[in-house]
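Notebook p. 47: complex prediction with copper (II) ion.
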Amino acid sequence: MFKKTFLMLATMVATFISTIVTAIALEDGARTAFEDGIHSAKPGQLGFMEAATPIMAETIAFHDLLLWITGIITLLVTGILVYIFIKFNAKANPVASKTTHNTLLEILWTAVPVLILVLIAVPSFRLMYNQDVIPEADITIKAIGNQWYWTYEYLDYEEIVFDANMLEEGDADYDKHPRLLGSDASVVVPVNKIVRVQVTATDVIHAWAMPAFGVKIDAVPGKLNETWFKATKEGLYYGQCSELCGIRHGFMPIMVEVVSQERYEAWLEEAKVKYASIDAPRLQQYASAQSLTE
Ligand SMILES: [Cu+2]
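Predicted complex, structure tokens below:
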């Protein structure tokens, strides 16, 4: 019995160590410069991507706090169990105690967990509130999920409406992005500005998710969801549709380019010309939604 348990524990420890060693070995094997753990996860990465918004920084801090709390509780419970196995087994302690109640202990094991839950609730509620309440926005973007691509509308500029499709092998720029994460158009936003994102869908439920921003929100047909982010570091960030939405669910990436205010304004002028000449993407959406039902 003891030998079996020991073997099982040894296997678990060995698996854990080999996972970490593999992860460390894989770390240098990034396919593109973006797979650096900041703009996109690096191969074999453990933990979160680096935070690009204050909300994500808060999320990581909250996660780390929880990891300490659950870690200490796990160690404490394991320690107590091991102590009991050794001290109170039939051989070491042949005459068992008949004690049934201990008021102090009972108060303690009720009060301590309550205190721990309160300790967790304070930062948890604060984070949920900060995510939910959208500060006054500098720009508003609408992200519309379609099977299987995204449509974006810059609500302050009528002309800026465009689709973002995944880059396939053979497309120009395909090699510049991590696999399945490159798309032919990216959302461009200015750094350090509050961006409100309204999210909806035309066909089935999708989800607009950007790990480095701490943003993940469902895109539901007939419903307008809202979220926000304030990216504090310039660069190109990758996300994906995060709701099982059909056969090409894994092929609708999200690219957000965070640029300086000047570059953003230059992009706006370019985009107004570029996207105004494209056939209304909204008509294409309805066409594609229709073709599915035919
Ligand atoms: Cu989707």
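Notes: Residues 145, 206, 241, 243, 245, 249, 252 surround copper (II) ion (CB under 6 Å). The two ends are 63 Å apart (CA to CA).
Next step: compare against the earlier run before touching the bench.
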